[in-house]
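Worked example

This section walks through a single chain of length 426. The input is the sequence exactly as stored; nothing has been trimmed or padded.
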Amino acid sequence: MQNEIKFIDGGVCAPLGFTANGMLCHIKASRTKNDTALVYSEVPCNAAGVFTQNRVKAESVKLTQKHLADGKAQALIAISGNANCCTGAQGAENALRMAKAAAGQLGIKAEDVIVYSTGVIGAQLDVTKVENNAAALAKGLSREGNKEARIAIMTTDTQFKECAVEFTVGGKLCRMGTMCKGSGMIHINMGTMLSMITTDCAISSEMLSKALHESILGTYNCVSVDGDTSTNDSLCILANGLAGNAEITATGPDYDAFLAALNKMNTVMAKKIAADGEGATRLVECNVRGAKSVEAARGLAKEIICSSLVKAAMFGSDANFGRFLCAMGYSGIEFDPDKTSIWFTSNKGAKRYFENYDDFEVHGSDSVQVYKDGVPLDFDEDLAKQIMSQEAVEILVQCGDGDASGTAWGCDLTYDYVKINGDYRT
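Given that input, the structure is written out below as tokens.
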């Protein structure tokens, strides 16, 4: 069954031929858990990536863009605790030394190593901490190493984030896995904070890039935690072809199957990132229906999610829907306020840190309508507060401008967000 997609365990090690590891190298002095990760494919891979659109880019981003210019890669090394951004020539040299340290232990070219970094901006990295531990990091590579690697990329994340799926392409069983980090400084307009995707599906670099750029539009790019686009955002995908399917080199049924699997996995990860926003107490999903186009629907949904006033209202469980309409109004996206209706919905007891990937939905059976066709309703305030107090809440907006839909994910804005970022460097 070509289009059946099943969630499986294993993260980035779920596909054939991939191993991983993570360990503590004390990149940041106060760190007590793994802070350096390595992911490796036993054979060279076709590769693609998308990166931050911030004009200020980390040295790891600049180097990885160069390394992926030929559409090839075989390994990734990542550190947390130091962004290696705004660090000049020394930072560039340190990023390259990270790639060389991994390559030397794996017996591959430095140009085939992707480099990630995350943490404090404007601090020089003591790269010897990576170099001195590279041998142990490589020696510990294993099929279960995703469990160590997924921890090593976390910064203010309270939960690790990984997912894997299996699907069929050309009669061959294929697998795809991912891990990512992201909790704060998240206003995505490229791919994700730091995310690594692996697959054993055979697909060309060109088609990988096409699928990645298509997928992020309705998944990662529809997430916002705090309105800040990071300097380090990177999302790369490696495909080693060990599943044995005929290589996907053009659009068609096989490409569609691959894209569907990628979308399903990336949607889960987008929700997980939003749910774990710094200081967040709830996952907020905004669904806009009846818009003129998909782009308009997604744009309106994300504008609502991005509003600090909306986020504050969600924290206070305050059904102040006027803030949603205000955000839609200044978005620059055309819609008719007099044909717009708004609901809040939730599933009682739903946890924002969901584990059941197959059927988790924020849209719930408990519902209250607060606005209808441009007119406020006399709604039950107590019911609205009860619904909005759940850990996963939907804002449902029905427009009257067309038949397109779009979704965005975010979280509430809490006192803890300010506390976390007020002393981030320490």
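What to look for: DSSP finds twelve helices and 15 strands in the chain.
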